[in-house]
Amino acid sequence: MTALALRNLSVTLRGRPVLRDVSLSVARGEVVGLIGPNGAGKTTLMRAALGLLPFTGESDLAARPAAERARTAAWLPQSREIAWPMSVERLVTLGRLPHLGAGQGAGPEDRAAVDRALDRLGLAAFRERAATRLSGGEQARALIARALAQETPLLLADEPIAGLDPAHQIGAMQTFAALAGEGRAVVVSLHDLGLAVRHCTRLVLLDAGRVVADGPPGEVLTPARLAEVFRIRAFHAETEQGAVWQALDVLEEA
Amino acid sequence: MSRLALALVALVAALFLLSLVVGPAEAGPGRSLRALVLGDGTPLTLVMREIRLPRALLALTVGAALGLSGAAMQGYLRNPLAEPGLLGVTGSAALGAVIAIHTGLAAALPLGLPLAALLGAAAGVGLLAALAGTRGGSLTLILAGIALSALAGALTSLALNLSPNPYAANEIVFWMMGSLADRSMTHVWLAAPLVALGAAVLMTLGRGLDALTLGEDAAAAMGYGMGRLQVALVAGTALAVGAATAVAGAIGFVGLVVPHLLRRVVGAQPSRLLWASALGGAAMVLAADVAVRVVLPERDLKLGVLTAIVGAPLFLHLVYRTRRDLG
């Protein structure tokens, strides 16, 4: 079942084409890693898909009414904003806003969703703490939990694991995989290709606003593409402990 | 209803009663209230119904308008230093009133002054909307508000500069300090419906402001676009604060300090801060309006002066506390 369908999506910002003719379809059960160098258009692609940017082409998500879209897809922006010193529990409960009826407070179902999200990110002990007083990585986890609490069929996350410690980076990726296992879909942008290779079911490589490659990690990250797009050389092998990928060095300009 | 709501409602009710029984006409609280309710035709009934009741009702209305719009402004701009005056509506309402005093309109028509102030507020918000647009950008909104405040302030100074006689200048200066003395039920009927309408619009912002805690992008993805929030914020604030300023003059610091004081108590949630600040603002203005009658009964101490004298040190304390928390 399709969770997201984009056709010929193009975005031009201030006369500069940022995204060109991107077509992409994401099915339930997939963890799609969106990779590419800085400025390749990863954030723009997700924001346009959500209808947060003016675009040409088609996005089934952006075509929905705002309230329905909010129950279909959760968006975790890259900028980690927590404006007020509210408790972690209140912060995560904000994810339930799209599910509340007019004048209705959070019910038992909402509280259960918040508990599940807190547990998944290992934040149960932080429940009462002011979110603004947590460390940067803990804030990032609280915001991931907020997006999870929205319990949407699709999650779009923009560099959610940047700045987390290794255990929590792996933990977050495993959480995304678990969501996919429950029949949801996750689109996640990330720069750590080693984690992308291990935890994403599929990679979409963007460069200069175009999709350069789309497929299983092993097929996308060929030495030729790594050289062309990232200008790096890498070690990549299937081992007994799963796929191992490690960047080795930067290639000189040809 | 939460314990906090009950406590605030009880506080407002107590201060409202206190406001009714404090005044130069010496009469016991029991007699005063009986005269108000029963209407026994004595002069005391007249005092209660024509002087003290409108004054207490206006303090309630004006305070709620200032507290609520302050909380809404801070939530929208995600800045604890924001206050309703930032939009320039207060300044343009004051300009309208000043023009009414200057031209003699205020003296010629019984409601000339507040109506001119409302007109000023309406013109101001029209200019604001034209300048800031409705796409929703907090920076352009602040800049437009500052420009509007500066313009209104300059024109107010011009009116003072050109005032026909020292009495007019005196009247303008005193009016701008803000007061609830010598208002009638007509003022209540003029301001209360507009404040109620503005408050109803501002209360719809609750969930949007909650979502905005996560940033503009996350809020937009949850279905709360900045454009619609900004339209509601500007319209609601203009109605509530414009009407409040028209009948009471410029009363500062309430919209700034009250949300700040109550933020911790409501767990920093912007939607809960809205109603809490409305009640808190009402309590603060009621208390301040009782104080001006008690502290210097003979000297006509102005309400706006008192809120500033109390508010500024309170605010300094909050700044100190914030600095300590950050350090």
Automatic annotation (TrEMBL), chain A:
GO molecular function: ATP binding; ATP hydrolysis activity
Presence of the UniProt keyword Oxidoreductase in the record: no
PROSITE patterns reported in the protein's UniProt record: ABC_TRANSPORTER_1, ABC_TRANSPORTER_2
SMART domains on file: AAA
Residues annotated as domain ABC transporter: 4-233
Pfam family, one: ABC_tran
Keyword annotations from UniProtKB, A to Z: ATP-binding, Nucleotide-binding
Keyword Zinc-finger applies: no
Protein name, entry field: ABC transporter ATP-binding protein
Automatic annotation (TrEMBL), chain B:
UniProt-listed GO biological process terms: siderophore-iron import into cell
UniProt entry tagged with the keyword Membrane: yes
UniProt keyword list: Cell membrane, Membrane, Transmembrane, Transmembrane helix, Transport
Stretches assigned to coiled coil: none
Domain of life: Bacteria
TM stretches of this protein: 51-73, 85-105, 111-132, 139-160, 188-209, 229-262, 274-295, 301-320
Family matches, as Pfam families: FecCD
Gene Ontology CC terms: plasma membrane
Protein name according to UniProt: Iron ABC transporter permease
InterPro entries: ABC_BtuC-like, ABC_transptr_permease_BtuC
Taxonomic source organism: Rhodosalinus sediminis
UniProt membrane topology term: Multi-pass membrane protein
Recorded family membership: Belongs to the binding-protein-dependent transport system permease family. FecCD subfamily.
Cell compartment(s), UniProt: Cell membrane
One of the record's GO molecular function terms: transmembrane transporter activity
